Amino acid sequence: MRRTFWILRGREAIRRFQHSCTDCRRWKSRPVVPKMADLPAARQRLCKPVFYSTGTDCFGPFQVKLGRRLEKRWGIIFKCLTTRAVHLDILNNLSTDSFLMAFRRFIARRGTPSEIFSDQGTNFRGGEGELHEAFKDLSPDLQAQLAGQKVSFHFNPPASPHFGGVWEREIRSVKTALYTTVGAQPVAEEVLRTVFIEVEGILNSKPLGYVSSDVTDLDPVTPNLLLMGRLDGSLPQVVYPESEILCKRQWRHSQVLSDHFWSSYIRHYLPSLQVRQKWHTSPADLKENVVVMLVDPQLPRALWPIGRVIKVHTSADGHVRSAEVEIKGKTYTRPVARLVALPAIPDSGPTTDPVQKV
After folding, report:
1. How far apart are CA 223 and CA 208, in angstroms?
2. What is the 3-state secondary structure (H, E, C) of 214-270?
3. What is the CB-side half-sphere exposure of residue 342 using CA atoms within 13 A?
């Protein structure tokens, strides 16, 4: 055709047609991710206790030796979303009971959190349901007294690990330390538990932000400043002279350490959290009744299901970051990063509804 005719603005016409073609959009379009949001309120609980806002997730499995047999164990991480402190524990399985027992151990050692963030794991969902039912069975007087200590659970949309990137990135650090120390060989359960606690101490000694090479600069801020009152748990405690009356000045010493942590945190570390590494643009938000295609990495693109948006979820900054999609009578909640918008279906099209095709 190009040997015979000269098409004016041919490439522009082809691109315009491809933009409105349903099949072309289905095979070439990618999800449109909104601009990265500001820091959520859970990341800015300043001057609050450690683990006030906590994110949790499970990882593994790891093989342990019990006599002559091998069994699997999983790890669970509780991470403070503000101070970046980490708490690690071992689960015998991924059931609701195992999670609740680990959650009780966490509360006994670290205190009761105000809010818990996690994915849509069945153990987390089941644990939230069990705690809710147990609270409903209490007497009205006990409910009124314990209402202030009630833990609120917040669940991320399915198939959206980037919603919990704070603790997902920490899981990578935990796995790196475990594979470097233990490797793939099965070890005794007591050895694995000891290594978990050692890794927890290493992560809590990690400085927040940039560490200067100048010895005259102040010590870096670490989560251990709030957990232990020291930069590193392996260092010896401070030796005070006998003339110091510790019983009258211990509270001042602890308060000075806490104030030092928060002042350094606000001055040096908090401004670095707002840097946007990606998702800088602000595309048009997803709207209801839009035909979308669900991204499924486990299936080829030709088998990705197609549905219609029936409800959008707006975040605090006004952008749509997740939506409910109806496919063959079923409703799925997915993040916008997993949805590919397709052109509107013309009314004069075929009688077969393409929304129901998969």
Report:
1. 8
2. CCCCCCCCCCHHHHCCCCCCCCCCCCCCCCCCHHHHHHHHHHHHHHHHHHHHHHHHH
3. 23
Q: Which residues pair with 331 in a beta bridge?
A: 326
The predicted-structure confidence for 78-120, as pLDDT tens digits, reads as follows 999 988 899 999 999 999 999 999 999 999 999 889 899 999 8
Strands (E), the chain: 53-66, 69-80, 86-91, 115-118, 152-155, 187-188, 291-294, 306-314, 320-327, 330-335, 339-341
Separation between Cα atoms, residue 113 and residue 106, nearest integer Å: 10
| CB-based contact 6:273 (threshold 8 Å) | no
Contact 338, 33 (CB under 8 A): no
Distance CA 51, CA 109 (A): 11
Q: What's the predicted TM-score (pTM) here?
A: 0.73
Distance CA 61, CA 71 (A): 10
CB-based contact 159:332 (threshold 8 Å): no
